[in-house]
């Protein structure tokens, strides 16, 4: 199962897509079908549908982010996802894996400077 979860981690490749059509093409068309074939073969399960919750947005209390250099040293709450952690580390930020319910307190207490989520999650916070 660990191998399968690693494969599906690609579904949340951070900031890889710039347009909704690209997301659709990746998840629903050829790549999505390949994922489905692997899951069916390896685990006997099938992806029935993909949800789309918008692109990810980074919010923070320190500074406006206009370039990758602006991420340097920023403490960002991320889910426990190896690909997201590695991405933020590569960009110079300090990713802090944390459960979602802990995020609000961590933001209030300055444990993290910001968080990364789709717009709809930020809107409903």
Describe this structure in words.
With 125 residues, this protein is of the alpha/beta class. It has helices spanning 2-9, 20-28, 30-43, 82-90, 103-109, 119-124; strands at residues 56-60, 75-78, 94-97, 114-118. Strands 1-4-2-3 form a 4-stranded mixed sheet.
In a nutshell, what does this entry contain?
With 125 residues, this protein is of the alpha/beta class. Helices cover 42% and strands 14% of the residues. The protein has helices at 2-9, 20-28, 30-43, 82-90, 103-109, 119-124; strands at 56-60, 75-78, 94-97, 114-118.
What is the secondary structure topology, with strand pairs?
Blueprint lengths: L1 H8 L10 H9 L1 H14 L12 E5 L14 E4 L3 H9 L3 E4 L5 H7 L4 E5 H6 L1
Parallel strand pairs: 2-3, 2-4
Antiparallel strand pairs: 1-4
Physical arrangement of strands within the biggest beta sheet: 1-4-2-3
- Relative strand content: 5-15%
Rg calc: 16 Å
Topology order in helix (H) and strand (E) letters = HHHEEHEHEH
Approximate shape? elongated
In DSSP terms, counting alpha (H) and pi (I) runs of 4 or more, how many helices? Answer: 6
The average pLDDT value, as a whole number, equals 82
Structural class per helix/strand content? alpha/beta
**Sequence stretches where pLDDT stays below 50 over 5 or more residues:** none
Can you give the helix content as a percent range? 40-55%
Q: Give the end-to-end Cα distance, rounded to a whole number of Å.
A: 32 Å
Instruction: Outline the biggest β-sheet.
Output: 4 strands, mixed
The count of β-strands is 4
């Amino acid at each position: 199962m660990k191998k399968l979860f690693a494969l599906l981690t690609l579904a949340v490749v951070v900031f890889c897509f710039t347009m909704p059509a690209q997301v659709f093409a990746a998840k629903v068309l050829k790549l999505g079908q390949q994922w489905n074939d692997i899951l069916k073969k390896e685990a006997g399960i099938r992806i029935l549908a993909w949800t789309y919750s918008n692109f990810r947005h980074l919010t923070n209390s320190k500074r406006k982010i206009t370039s990758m250099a602006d991420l340097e040293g920023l403490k960002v709450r991320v889910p426990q996802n190896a690909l997201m952690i590695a991405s933020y580390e590569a960009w110079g930020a300090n990713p802090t894996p944390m459960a979602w319910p802990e995020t609000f307190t961590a933001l209030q207490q300055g444990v993290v400077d910001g968080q990364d989520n789709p717009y709809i999650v930020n809107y409903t916070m």
